[in-house]
Amino acid sequence: MNIFKNKTDLIAHMDSLKSEKKTIGFVPTMGALHQGHVSLVAKGLQDNDFVVVSIFVNPTQFDNQDDLEKYPRTLDTDAALLEEISKDRIVIYAPTVDDIYGSNIASTHFTYDGLEHEMEGRFRVGHFDGVGTIVKRLFEIIRPDKAYFGEKDFQQLMIVKKLIEKHRIPVDIIGCAIHREKDGLAMSSRNVRLKPKYRLAAPFVYKTLNTAKEKFGTKSAKKVTEWVETQFAKHDLLTLEYFIIADVKTLKAVKRKSNKNKYRAFIAVYADDIRLIDNIALN
Ligand code: PAF
Question: At the top level of CATH, which class does the domain 2-176 belong to?
Answer without folding.
Answer: alpha beta
